[in-house]
Amino acid sequence: MPVPLTPDERKAVETDLADVRVYEALLAPLGVKGLVVMCDDCRHDHYPTWHELLGNLESLRDTGDVAHHPENATRDPHGYASWDWCRGYLAGLTRDVERWGPTTES
C-alpha cells in the first residue's frame, strides 16, 4: 500500500514535474523523446517518454506510488537524455541569456 508523501517529498516531486515540463518544451522539438531513469527497484535504466514520466510523477505526487513501470527491453535508448544533461542544457541556455541578453527580433 502506498504511503503518502511527506511535505518535503511532495515539494521535490512538484519541482521535478516543473523541470520535466521545461525539459520537454525545450527538447522534444529537438527529437529528445524523454529521460533515462535509473529504477531503484530493478537497478536498470528505463526510458519513459515525456508523457509517461509526467504521469508517473503526477501519480507519485497524488498517491505516493508510480502508476507505470516503463518497459526497458522494448525501448531504443537513443533519443533519451539524462537528468544531468537536461539540467546542463538548461543551465547553458540560462547562462547565455544572462551573459548576452535575450535575443530581440526587429
Question: Can you offer a commentary on this structure?
Answer:
The chain has 106 residues and is mainly α. The protein has one domain. The protein is built from 3 helices and 4 strands, in the order H-E-E-E-H-E-H. The strands form 2 sheets. Strands 1-4 form a two-stranded parallel sheet. A two-stranded antiparallel ribbon has the order 2-3. Strand 2 and strand 3 form a beta hairpin. Helix 1 runs antiparallel to helix 2. The longest helix has 21 residues, at 7-27. It is globular. 13% of the residues are buried. The mean pLDDT is 86.
Residues in helix, %: 40-55%
| Unreliable parts | none
* Largest sheet: number of strands, sense, barrel closure: 2 strands, parallel
Number of strands: 4
Shape type: globular
Gap between N and C termini, in Å? 57 Å
